[in-house]
Amino acid sequence: MTFVITQPCIDTMDQSCVEVCPVDCIHFEEGPDRMLYISPVECIDCGACQPACPVSAIFPEDEVPADQAFFTEINSLWFEDPAGARAQVPGEGEGAPAAPAAAAPPAAEAAAEEPSAPVESPPAAEAEEEPETGVRPPRLVARRPLSFHVSLLLALLRKKLAEFDAGGGDTRLVLSRDEVVEMVRVFLPESTNEARVVERIDAHLNRIVDLGFLRRMKPESDASSRAGQTSFEVRRILKAFVDADWLAELDARLAAYRAELAGSGEGGEGEGEGESEGAGPG
């Protein structure tokens, strides 16, 4: 699902939503455009833009008011045919673009000539009640816990992205599947079943692709030219999700985990030595 910018944005174009969008999915062209447009492909449904809009022009796709529903198509059309989308943006005081009138069948024409009974409008009490303030409450975004290994892989990818940016090289960080496997392997318990380990890492990678932090590269578009290997582009939205505080907290937990493992290992060795010293012929 995506968010949609509607009529109140026309000739306003405040751009507060552009500043808070973590994936830069809100676009417009200075001059020709009279409103902003959200890309339905790039939008990650985070909801950050909605409360930032000072004129309440942004709605989730399934909550767009009925009289503004045509803006869903306008937002999507702009990314394929900007001129066509601009032509559908209503002028001042106009509503939805009028649809071409269809020819009425003969029976309908005959019925139209006959006087019809007056149609009563529904009582005001039956009409849908709108909030008195006219401002919709902020929409809540569901938060779902991530597994330890997915969180760990996100942290490792975030550190890799920071190292990549510090190097000042290419603008896109592309990692092969083998590189990701080697990056994570040191944090996994030893196993004699190599295929099973790789299968688990693939499952974590698929989860991160679904979250939108990795993009699976097509073989022909992979700049690294690693034939026969699946590659992933690390998307920069990861920097907005995994910040310095998040990394510091994870580092602290990993340090405690390593200390606990080291302590249990030393305890096991001490117990083993005591047993060997106490054992002997009676």
In short:
The chain is mostly helical and 282 residues long. Helices cover 42% and strands 7% of the residues.
Fill in the keyword field for this structure:
42% helix, two-stranded antiparallel sheet, disordered C terminus, 282 residues, elongated, 2 domains
Q: Architecture of the largest domain in CATH?
A: Orthogonal Bundle
Q: Which sequence of strands runs across the widest sheet?
A: 5-7-6
Structural class category: mainly alpha
CATH-derived topology of the largest domain: Arc Repressor Mutant, subunit A
Overall mean pLDDT stands at 76
Output the CATH class name of the largest domain. Answer: Mainly Alpha
Beta percentage is 5-15%
Q: What characterizes the major β-sheet?
A: 3 strands, antiparallel
Shape: elongated
What is the helix/strand order?
A: EHEEHEHHHHEHHEEHH
Structure description:
With 282 residues, the protein is mainly α. It folds into two domains: 3-89, Alpha-Beta Plaits, CATH 3.30.70.20; 148-260, Arc Repressor Mutant, subunit A (Orthogonal Bundle). It has helices at residues 16-20, 49-52, 70-78, 82-88, 106-113, 148-167, 177-185, 194-211, 238-241, 244-278, and strands at residues 3-5, 26-27, 37-38, 58-60, 173-176, 214-216, 231-234. The radius of gyration is 29 Å and the shape is elongated. The model is unreliable at 98-112, 121-130, 221-225 and 269-282 (pLDDT under 50).
